[in-house]
Amino acid sequence: MIMEDNIEDTKVKENLIEHPKKYITVWRNKWIASKAGNIDDFIKVYKNLGEMMQRWKDKGIILDPDIICTMENDYAQFCTYDEAVALQEGFERFKVEAFEEWDDEPETDVPFFEVNKYISLKLIQGETLIFVNGEQFNQCRYVLLVNLLRNEKQEEIGSIDEAQSVYNNDLENDITPEELGITKEQEFWAHSSNLQTWAENWYDSRLLHSNLAFPLLKKLTEVGDVNAKKVFKDEIGKRFVSGFFPVMAYLFKEGFMNCLTTEEFSSLLDEVDYSKLDVNKLLVNLKDFVFCDHTYRFLLRIKDEFEDYFRENPIYIDIAEYRLDESEFSPVVITPDSNYFIRGSNDGKLKEFNMITGDLERVFGSHKMAVFALAISRDGKYIASSGDSTINVWDYSTGDLIYTLSGHQDVVNCLRFDPQGGYLVSGSADNEIKAWDLISGKVKRTLGSHWGGVLSLDYSQDGSYLVSSALDTTINLWDVKKGRLISTFIDKKENIHGVAISKDNSFIVSATNSTLKIWDIKENKLSCIIRVPHDEYDFYSFVLTPDSKFIVSALQGPLEEGGALSLWRVADGKLIITLPIREGFRTYSQKLNMITISQDGVFIVGAA
Fold it and tell me: Whole-model pTM?
């Protein structure tokens, strides 16, 4: 907001409100200390004080609305408009300082300015206050003092927010308005002029700082200002697409982007000037963007717009931690639209949480035991879960049970849907893999070549191959259409608790407690070994990114140390980045049992 020395052509209105007789008393907290000789005096005073305050409340006595109380004040002023109550409680009659006696004349010593029928300003106790529909809305915080001779970037300034950024509040920080000889009343008229200019220009948010313009616009729409209603969403959109980072972050953080529909926001994404957006600054301040209805769409667009940057600089940032209910095995899946994650719990229920807020959205499903295995189809139509030797298949949209599949002789350890969504495969401690037809709910084929319980399954992205691992230290590669075993890879030292097949079907990644291994399918041999970087840490879970260029693994150390997410490059097995697991996992002494990645590679969810 620009300070002007002289305000011309402003219309000052007298405050014509007729004031009722008011009676006041001032209570000072220093009085307590001055009257106290020992701790018993304090106890007695506070007890009596509480009783007095309750009595005042019952009689309709209130904090004086004309007095601004701050944390720095050592007093509070109470008032009543009832003369009888005032006499009973010993209140004094309030007199306007400009008059020696109460004369029922309107108060004229308070500067007042009316911008329009909804907005007005008052100067009270040296502070400029904004009122909307007669109710106090906000306090004008500061006037931006500008020395135009020092401005070498005037043409680059497109808004008050940008002006603040250019000048960096240097004049405000170095010298106060009072030191320049600017009075509080002059500040008041400067604020009044700014708000009048803003209103006369159809509430153009570039003319006020965003932290005043948007809350004020929102309030005006709520009280029925037709002009504000017309421009509110347009102003949000206009400032968002400008690409000026502080305003974009503010609109997300304060929830103003939630005022837009999905269609409106998606349209804005096409208009954003991404050339002005500093992706490094965005990543550093990512938490300002996450708690919004449109966060996922925004992050996905950023990923696409800065594809080259992320290709060279793969980034994983810990954006949130949610404290959920107990789950011994922590199976978790992400919905295809990345808006939710679903977790199997100890109570046998499936619980769906909002990806951005962590809010519990719904509970469905029912198992007699804790949920051990969980899977979701690529199209999001089906959910499969198991806590024993049976498998339940659920309609994701309704949460209704479609099938209960029986056939395994022992607990089901892992589940996977084929990419086309026609079949479900299950691996069990009974050493068998079964393929289930989702149309009939019947077993199509049983694969039984493992000599130990099946621990992990993965489908190739084109649905041609299935890979499995088991307690017999082997990895089997299956031709899905023919139902036959193609290759077997043997890890001679450890059982393999996790497997994944690459996007182009050229390699398999496997995990043991101490290593990640990459197996060349064509050459039928081990091509790379990635070892745990610390002796006390183990690989607990891993995912292969959708482009198959990176492995993200969960490393778990001693409970008091916590763990980490590590990003490894497939091409050379190099460790790219390690992201410490948040403090909460150490606080609650839990292990990160499972991680999963969204289909587009934007989100990773780890569950303990």
Answer: 0.59
CATH of the domain at 362: 2.40.10.480
Regarding predicted confidence, which is higher, 254 or 67? 254
The CB density around residue 215, as the number of other CB atoms within 10 Å, is: 14
Burial of 392 (0-12, 13-18, 19+ CB in 10 A): buried
Q: What is the pLDDT of residues 544-563, one digit of tens each?
A: 988 898 888 887 666 555 56
Give the residue carrying structure tokens 């479900």.
424
Is pLDDT of 507 > 90?
yes
> E strands, 301-432, where?
332-334, 340-344, 350-354, 360-364, 373-376, 382-386, 391-395, 401-405, 412-417, 423-428
Same domain, 396 and 421: no
Instruction: Please check whether residues 475 and 357 belong to one and the same domain.
Output: no
Residue 240 belongs to a domain: no
421 with 544, same domain: the answer is yes
Q: How far apart, in Å, are the Cα atoms of 429 and each of 59, 404, 411, 412?
A: 74, 18, 6, 6
The phi, psi pair for 279, rounded to 5°, reads -65, -30
Average of per-residue pLDDT across 566-588? 71
Q: Quick one: 474 and 521 in the same domain?
A: yes
Segments forming the whole domain that contains residue 385: 330-413
Residue 436 lies in a domain: yes
- In tens, the pLDDT along 417-467 reads 999 888 999 999 999 999 999 999 999 988 877 888 999 999 999 999 999
